[in-house]
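Reopening this ticket.

The earlier resolution said the output was attached, but the attachment link was broken on my side. Pasting everything inline this time so it's all in one place.
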Amino acid sequence: MAERLGGYIFATIVQLPFHILLASPFLVAAAVAAFFTRRRIPFLARLALISGIVALGLAPVYGAHRSMIPVYTLVISGDASIVSTAASFICTWGLALLVGYLVAKS
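Inline output:
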């Protein structure tokens, strides 16, 4: 179990630059949303919106040989499972919310 988890962690770290490149349109959209919602909506709602946009681009799914790809690519191609897609998005959104909150409050 630990060896398998280590393999996924290693694969995630090695493939991260490519993953961020694929997520860059969503990261740009999150930056634009952050700019235009600065004074329009409350902090927590704004943080949830921006974290959701980031999570849409960064939520990973692991394919054959522990290859990590953004889950939105499987949704577009029609090969995504609803349960795994939702779980990946929710976990990534929660992590993005936590990191965003900690960065904003520091």
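Reporter confirms the inline version is readable. The chain has one domain: 2-105. The first strand starts at residue 60 and ends at 62.
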